[in-house]
Design brief:
alpha+beta; five-stranded antiparallel sheet; seven-stranded antiparallel sheet; Phosphatase 2c, domain 1; 22 strands; about 625 residues; Beta-Lactamase
Length: about 625
């Protein structure tokens, strides 16, 4: 219990810390945003002044004296600036003129030395055609001090002619930074895009160190990561323990919208979470007092509950050992234990009834399984096997792999008379018992009709009439049926919506007869069924399959298809009918994804061995 209370206290303190951290991050973020806006207003004002001067020069209507008077007025009215410069590289020779104030009077210094062409403040905006804030640099010709320059291109007819530069003394930046406050003692400093400390309350750091120089003093990877974030212009609020200051500190930083500089502030941890410290102390005392009170209440309650709970536990143990007989009512003053006891007795009664129902359900399931097994045996007995009667000049092999215990596929073959052999394969629409019943009736009816009709189309017409006259649960099927003249090898067959019939020649050729001679059986009455004739040579094989072969899918949802079947057949040249059928089945089962289920698979292979010799 003590451990739980300590854990609870720690969790609550952690939650309070997270909440306070989020709150302080927002508060300090707002302070930083306000400071950034202060910096940005000063820098934006400089940008506006530079663009105004750019407009004056670009208009081309003012002479040099008028432009100088404008610059003089600009420097007088804006003491934040120390100098301005006009630089041209399209004139001969290139020159730049730096303007500054000396005792409130204009001082213009013209320089025809082309060194300025290679300085960042000139070269970068000249090449990019865009305004540019330079890093701090020492202006030895004009201001004679370290300045940050804002440069804008001078264009005429879309072509850059030169650069206008206005200069902000670094000392002015430092004055702005010194006046920025974050909390009570948080210090702010300004970092350039390459990490140089531009302005800092400690003068010795400005322009002498980069932020990377500072963090390299401490063996902390986190500090180097923070420095990279600052230079990258990210926004952050992160804790650090190794900054060489007394106690932990929080670093907050965010970029200036005007350029790629960043404002960084360091705030002591104690100032960020001063309210949390007092709240933690009060909460700890409250939790300790609550723990003592709750412990006394729990002790008294446990004493009152122990006896009836012991009786209830004994009853649960008996139920666990299989004794579900009703127990006498439990006497207790606890409403909760009384409810548990009553519900436990109700659960025992429900469990006993459930066991009885489960036993009855198991018996019923076993009965249905037995009946399905019997139906499966009956269905398989109707399909020809290796002992079925077949002529001496035919080798026949068929197999059927139902998707369940019973299926809706069928194949059959038998002698109509001494000179003619009938074969058929069919696929009943649907699965399960209904399809199996239709398959059983079709098998029986097929042999009956074949005694009176000797043409495939006539037999199929009779089957279609039967299905149309009897509304069966699964009353539709596709069927391919053929009759072979054993003496001549002529095969007449009809395809009622079934898959193609294949003829495999002894020389390895595969002939595909994919024409259907009618729709599937059972859909329309009085359908016209045609037939087709082919001649078999000795060694030719007839192959028929159901859609359980072609519609098998692999884990990538690709169909086996007729292409897969034909590819398999191409590798079975010279194989026996039995080997051919089994090889196709094995290939399909290896291809198919067992988790997706499959349809009934039926394969019938017939090899014609040559004309039947007459006695």
């Amino acid at each position: 219990m003590t451990f739980l209370f300590i854990l609870l206290l720690l969790v609550i303190l952690r939650l309070l810390f997270d909440v306070e951290k989020t709150n302080q991050e927002e508060v300090i973020g707002n302070l930083m945003e306000s400071n950034v806006q202060i910096m940005d207003r000063n820098l934006s004002g400089i940008i506006s002044l530079a663009k105004n001067l750019q407009g004056v020069v670009n208009e081309g209507v003012y002479n040099e004296a008028e432009i100088q008077r404008h610059i003089h007025r600009l420097l007088l009215d804006n003491p934040i600036l120390v100098s301005a410069c006009l630089a041209y590289d399209e004139q001969n020779p290139p020159h730049c003129t730096t303007f500054s104030l000396v005792a409130q009077r204009m001082n213009a210094i013209k320089n025809t030395n082309d060194d300025f062409l290679y300085k960042d403040w000139f070269q970068i905006p000249r090449l990019t055609g865009r305004p540019y804030w330079s890093d701090p640099w020492y202006d030895k010709e004009g201001a004679k001090t370290i300045v940050c320059s804002y440069s804008v291109p001078l264009t005429r007819k879309g072509k850059v002619q030169g650069i206008i530069r206005v200069d902000l003394p670094l000392e002015n930046l430092r004055r702005i930074i010194v006046n920025l406050r974050v909390k009570e003692s948080g210090r702010a400093f300004l970092v350039s895009g390459n990490g140089m400390i531009m302005a800092h309350p400690t003068d010795s750091l400005a322009m002498n160190y980069t932020i990377f120089d500072l963090v390299n003093r401490y063996p902390d990877v986190q500090m180097r990561t923070l420095a990279k974030k600052v230079v990258a212009g990210e926004v952050g609020f992160e804790r650090n323990r190794n900054l060489g200051m007394k106690g932990d500190v929080w670093l907050t930083f965010r970029p200036l919208p005007t350029n790629n500089w960043s404002l960084v502030a360091i705030v002591p941890h104690r100032e960020v979470f001063v309210h949390l410290h007092y709240l933690s102390l009060i909460l700890s005392l409250a939790v300790l007092f609550g723990f003592l009170v709750l412990s006394l209440m729990i002790w008294g309650r446990v004493q009152a509950l122990n006896k009836p709970l012991t009786e209830l536990v004994d009853g649960i143990k008996q139920a666990g050992e299989g004794d579900l007989s009703p127990a006498p009512p439990l006497e207790t003053e606890s409403y909760e234990i009384q409810v548990i006891s009553e519900n436990f007795e109700a659960m025992k009664s429900s469990l006993s009834a459930h066991i009885d129902n489960l036993q009855a359900l198991t018996e019923e399931r076993n009965r249905i399984s037995s009946e399905l097994e019997f139906a499966s045996n009956v269905q398989r007995s109707l399909i020809p096997n290796g002992n079925s009667i077949k002529p001496g000049n035919l080798d026949v092999y068929g197999l059927l792999e139902p998707a369940g215990m019973v299926g809706g596929d069928l194949f059959d073959y038998f002698l109509i008379d001494e000179g003619h052999f009938l074969f058929a394969i069919a696929d009943v629409v649907g699965k399960g018992v209904g399809a199996a019943m239709t398959m059983t009736m079709a098998t029986t009816l097929l042999r009956s009709i074949a005694q009176h009709h000797k043409k495939p189309q006539e037999i199929l017409s009779q089957l279609n009439a039967f299905f149309m006259g009897h509304k069966l649960e699964s009353g539709y099927m596709t069927m391919a049926l053929g009759i072979i003249d054993l003496a001549s090898g002529v095969c007449v067959f009809s395809n009622a919506g079934h898959l193609p019939l294949y003829v495999l020649s002894q020389d390895g050729q595969i002939r595909k007869h994919e024409r259907t001679h009618s729709t599937a059986l059972g859909f329309f009455d009085n359908i016209k069924i045609e037939s087709e004739e082919l001649r078999l040579d000795a060694g030719d094989k007839i192959l028929l399959v159901t859609d359980g072969v072609t519609e098998a899918t692999n884990p990538n949802d690709h169909l086996f298809g007729t292409q897969g079947l034909e590819k398999t057949l191409a590798g079975l040249r010279g194989a026996s009918v039995e080997k051919t059928a089994k090889a196709i089945l094995e290939t399909v089962l290896d291809f198919a994804d067992p988790e997706k289920g499959r349809d009934d698979i039926t394969i019938l292979a017939i090899e014609y061995l040559g004309g039947l010799q007459k006695p």
